[in-house]
Amino acid sequence: MKLTCPNCKTIIATKDIKKVNTNSLFIENQCPSCQAWFCLNKTQTILKISGIFLLLITSLLNIFNIKAEYSLAFSVIGFIGIFVALIITFFGKYDAVKNKKSN
Ligand SMILES: [Zn+2]
Predict the structure, then answer these.
(1) How far is the CA of 37 from the centre of ligand 1 (A)?
(2) Which residue spans traverse the membrane (predicted)?
(3) 77 C-alpha to ligand 1 centroid (Å)
(4) What is the DSSP code (8-state) at residue 32?
């Protein structure tokens, strides 16, 4: 897989990325050319986190019986949220995982 550094526009092969920061919320990769940190899967990560939060919030609303008349709707929304998060987790391209395998 080839990608372009958003900072210096150099085309980098993912195997050339030696440094990956998994400590931050978003998985960051360091450009081997200009040493800038960039994130590849920001959208995926945001979607995943919002999915989990959606489930969390709707579950809490149901547990505390807030707006009980909408509890079915909350369950459905929560289910969709965690479903999206799971799909991203299993099918999303996580380059950090790939890097670990190739090293
Ligand atoms: Zn760069």
Answers:
(1) 8
(2) 45-64, 70-91
(3) 40
(4) T
59 versus 26: the higher-pLDDT residue is 59
In 3D space, the residue among 44, 49, 12, 48 whose CA is nearest the CA of residue 31 turns out to be 12
Across the chain, mean pLDDT equals 84
**Angle, helix 42-63 to helix 71-91, in steps of 10 degrees:** 150
Alpha-carbon distance of 26 to 22, in angstroms, equals 7
CA atoms of 70 and 85, how far apart (whole Å): 23
Ligand 1 centroid distance, CA of 70 (Å): 49
pLDDT at 74 over 80: yes
- 85 phi and psi angles, rounded to 5 deg: -60, -40
- Work out how many domains the chain is built from and give that number: 1
Cα–Cα distance, 95 to 84 (Å, whole number): 19
Kindly give the distance from the C-alpha atom of residue 30 to the centroid of ligand 1, in angstroms, as a whole number.
Answer: 8
Range of the domain at 26: 2-102
